[in-house]
Amino acid sequence: MGVGDAVKNLVIRNLSKTYFDVYAGTQVTAVRDVSLNVPESEFISIVGPSGCGKSTILNMIAGFIPHSSGEILVGGKPVNGPGPDRGVVFQSFALFPWRTVLENVAFGPKMRGVGKVEREKIAHEFLALAKLSEAAGRYPNELSGGMQQRVGVARALANEPDVLLMDEPFASVDAQTRMTLQEELTRIWEAKRPTVIFITHDVAEAVFLANRVVALSKGKVLDEIEVDLPRPRVWDDLHENEQFKSLTARVLQLVRSA
Amino acid sequence: MKTFFLTIWSGYVRLTARWPSIGSIAPFIPLIAAWWIITELQIFPRVFLPGPVDVVRSFGTLVYTGILPEYLQDSMVRLVVGAFWGIVLGIPLGIFIGLSPRAHTVLWPPLLFFQAIGDIAWLPILVIWFGYGLTTMTVIIVYTVIFPVVLNTVLGVRSTSITLHRAALSLGASRARLLWEVVLPGALPNIITGLRNGLGYGWRALIATEIIVGTSGIGFLMFDARRGGSLVEVLLGMIILGILWYIVDAWILAPLERATGQRWGLVTQ
């Protein structure tokens, strides 16, 4: 299924972003010569401190901002503006306040021209996956932050994108809810196996979720670390897991030393 | 003593919660009573301040002769026609200015300039251009309604988060769908606020215009009565203006506001 029949992978070659800072009056390089290869059904985390350029990379992949040089290929096709082949989950949720939860999730299929009955069936399916079935008829502002972001994830997935882009999606919910959402996300990922780019500044979160962690600093890739922790992953197991601890320590050291 | 008043107050709150129309009418009872007492005491001569009974009697006569229903209809039709064009022109213009930074740069200063020229200030020139009639009145009302609608629509469009635009685009919305699915609903609470203000100003402008150039309508009724030296109809006209606006605002505009922005959590309740 999905939007195209192309391979759902992401290739980034020598991506850079420079812009002119009108206040400083100088040219600023936000992203410097980044190359990444994300095969279909891989979950990668890009981790780094604030201002390291990770959100800029995601915004370029999403097509929200143009890149200065290099190439972004999704399913072999170059990115040119936003499109439904790349689903986005936002830190601020970005749900449509005037649409119910069900209508939010059905929005992507609606834009594709899927009929009302069919798209509501799809929406119900993804709401069930996100354990939100009972909230279908409610408006976003009636939900907690954690529930709103589940809707955000369900909405992006219901459109069956080639690549799922997540921009610090759990940064604005409380710590307990965040852990639950992280576990839910790994469960959903195992069920649907989408290709995911997950942006975060939280090293433990990056390691917990991903197959591979990309450490970023000052717009440059420092290193890529394979994470071969067993799945399903739950915090109760991983808290005391030596491998998890050493991986986290390694990434943390990388990010902090740069 | 304090508990006694609180008991009465709580009884009143519960009563109005059950029958909201009582809540709309009850606050006017002391006002009317005071008016009635003052006129009965003859503090001012009757000619200067007629009482409620005279006004009600005059209401009966004017309804019976058919003058009041006709004038009322004339005023309402003028307001509706003016409001219609104000909305039809104002909302697209507001969306255009709100979406395009260039249009905003170019159009915003003249918009504020023309807004400052009050509606009535246009009357002398409009009378020369269009004469005494419906055209002049419609132009005045459209002019009055359009500014609050445009300014609030611009505000609404600009205050809708760019993230919502991005969300819609990355879910496959075209630019045209974006307008309908995000820009318009995002601006809707502000548009309704603009409409509420615009119609309020428009209503006042209409009466003023009818007083000056009208040959019928509530404003004309009041001015014509003054010419005849009868303050009864003037007071009647004033009361009708208040009641009509109350109905439009409380029964149409306020519920509209509750059903949109407040429901969606875009405005605080």
Description of the molecule:
The complex is a heterodimer of chains A (258) and B (269). Chain A has 258 residues and is α/β, with parallel strands linked by helices. Chain A is 36% helix and 26% strand. In chain A, the strands form two sheets. Chain A has a six-stranded mixed β-sheet, sandwiched between helices. Chain A has a four-stranded antiparallel β-sheet with strand order 2-1-4-5, covered by helices on one side. In chain A, strand 4 (69-74) and strand 5 (77-78) form a beta hairpin. The N and C termini of chain A lie far apart (42 Å). By secondary structure, chain B is mainly alpha-helical. Chain B has a single domain (52-263), classed as MetI-like (MetI-like fold). Helix content of chain B is 84%, strand content 0%. Chain B has helices spanning 2-18, 20-25, 28-40, 52-65, 67-99, 101-116, 123-130, 134-159, 162-170, 175-213, 218-227, 231-264. In chain B, helix 7 (123-130) packs across helix 8 and helix 9 (162-170) packs across helix 10. Chain B is flat. The chains are: A alpha/beta (258), B mainly alpha (269). Chains A and B meet through strand 6 and helix 3 of A and helix 9, helix 10 and helix 12 of B.
